[in-house]
UniProtKB/TrEMBL annotation:
Higher taxonomy: Bacteria, Bacillati, Actinomycetota, Actinomycetes, Mycobacteriales
Alphabetized UniProt keyword annotations: FAD, Flavoprotein, Oxidoreductase
Oxidoreductase found in the keyword field: yes
Annotated family: Belongs to the acyl-CoA dehydrogenase family.
Source species of the chain: Mycolicibacterium confluentis
Protein name as catalogued: Acyl-CoA dehydrogenase
Length: 337
C-alpha cells in the first residue's frame, strides 16, 4: 500500500485548490457568515456538480475524495458536500444522485414493521446539513432507510462555526416502504459508512488546520516587533514547527485511512479511528498556537483565521472527540492483544 501521491493525484489536488481559491475565497465565506450572500452556497454546490465533484461515489475513489475534502476544509466550504459525499452516500450508495444533497442520521431513530412497510420515529441531534438535505440516509436497528426530506422535520441549531449547518431532525411516525430499506442490519454497511465519515471529518480538520498555519506563516513573515520580523523569534518558530508536525501527522493517518477504505483493508476501522483522534489533537494544538501567534488580532471578527479555526473545532465535536476515539483504539488494541 503506497502512501505517496502519484502525479495524477497531485494534479487533482492542485486543480481543486486552484478552483476553490477562485470560487470560495475568504471574502465569500465572510459574506455568508455575515448574512450578506444567502445564495452563495447554492451557487458553489452547482459548480461542484458541473465539475463532476459530486460523482466521487465509488469506494475505490476514496483517496481522490479525501484529497478534495481536505481542500474543501482548507477553504471552509459552506456547501453540503461533506455530509453528502462522506456521510449520506456511503450509507446509501444505491441512492446516490450527483445533483441532490443528502445527510446521514446515525442514531436516535427506530423502525417499526407495519403491514405496508415501516414507520420511523425518533429525534436525531447534531445532523450535519440536516436542515438543507434533499434526502436522509437513516441508520436504525432494522437497517438503513432512505427518506425524502419533505416528510421530516428539521431545525437548524446554532453552532461554533457560523457557516456550518447542523440540525435537529425529528421523525414523527414517518411511513416508508420496503423499497426504502437499502441495507439490512445484518450487513456491515453502517460500519463501513462510519469509517468514511470519520475519515472525511479528519481530512476536513487537516485542511482547516493547514489554512490556519498558512495564515500564521504569512502573518509572522510580515509583522514586525522591535524592528524585526516576529517570525525570526525562536519561540515563534518553535510553535509554527509544532503546528506543522501535528498537521503532517494527522494528514498521514487520514490519507492512510482513505487508502484502507479504498482497498477494503480490514484495518480501515482502526485507521479511521486513529485519523479522527489525531486530527482532534492536531486542531487543539493548532487552535492554541494559531490564536497566540496572531496576538490580540486572532480574537477579532475582522481576522479571517477565525473561519478555519472554527471549522477545525467543529470537526472535533462531530462524531466524537479525540478522547472518545482514543478509548476505542485502546479497546481494539486490547481485544487484539
Amino acid at each position: 500500500m503506497l502512501l505517496e501521491l502519484d502525479s495524477d493525484q497531485r494534479l487533482w489536488r492542485d486543480t481543486a485548490r486552484d478552483v476553490l481559491t477562485k470560487e470560495c475565497p475568504a471574502s465569500l465565506v465572510r459574506a455568508i457568515a455575515e448574512g450578506q450572500d444567502t445564495d452563495a452556497a447554492g451557487r458553489l454546490w452547482a459548480s461542484y456538480v458541473d465539475n463532476g465533484w459530486t460523482e466521487l461515489t465509488e469506494a475505490s475513489e476514496t483517496v481522490e475524495l479525501g484529497l478534495l475534502v481536505e481542500e474543501l476544509g482548507r477553504a471552509t466550504d459552506p456547501t453540503p458536500y461533506l455530509a453528502t459525499l462522506t456521510q449520506f452516500t456511503p450509507l446509501a450508495p444505491e441512492a446516490a444522485d450527483p445533483k441532490l444533497a443528502g445527510a446521514a442520521v446515525y442514531d436516535g431513530v427506530t423502525a417499526a414493521r407495519v403491514a405496508d412497510g415501516w414507520v420511523l420515529d425518533g429525534t436525531a441531534r447534531h445532523v450535519l446539513d440536516g436542515d438543507r438535505a434533499d434526502r436522509f440516509a437513516v441508520s436504525t436497528p432494522a437497517g438503513v432507510f432512505v427518506v425524502a426530506a419533505q416528510g421530516v422535520s428539521a431545525r437548524r441549531v446554532a453552532v461554533f462555526d457560523p457557516v456550518l449547518h447542523v440540525a435537529e431532525v425529528t421523525f414523527d411516525s414517518v411511513r416508508v416502504s420496503g423499497s426504502d430499506l437499502v441495507a439490512t442490519a445484518a450487513t456491515d454497511h453502517a460500519a463501513r459508512a462510519r469509517d468514511v465519515a470519520l475519515t472525511g471529518l479528519a481530512l476536513t480538520m487537516v485542511g482547516a488546520c493547514q489554512r490556519v498555519l498558512d495564515l500564521v506563516l504569512e502573518h509572522v513573515g510580515s509583522r514586525q516587533q522591535f524592528g524585526v520580523l516576529i517570525g525570526s523569534f525562536q519561540a515563534v518558530q518553535h510553535k509554527a514547527a509544532d503546528m506543522h508536525v501535528a498537521i503532517e501527522r494527522a494528514r498521514a493517518l487520514s490519507h492512510f485511512a482513505a487508502l484502507t477504505i479504498a482497498a477494503d483493508d480490514p484495518r480501515r476501522r482502526l485507521a479511521s479511528e486513529m485519523a479522527k483522534a489525531a486530527a482532534g489533537e492536531c486542531q487543539s494544538l493548532v487552535f492554541k498556537h494559531g490564536i497566540q501567534l496572531f496576538g490580540a488580532m486572532g480574537f477579532t471578527w475582522e481576522n479571517d483565521v477565525q473561519f478555519a479555526l472554527k471549522r477545525a473545532k467543529a470537526g472535533e465535536l462531530l462524531l466524537g472527540g479525540a478522547a472518545e476515539h482514543r478509548a476505542v483504539i485502546a479497546q481494539m488494541s486490547l481485544a487484539g492483544a
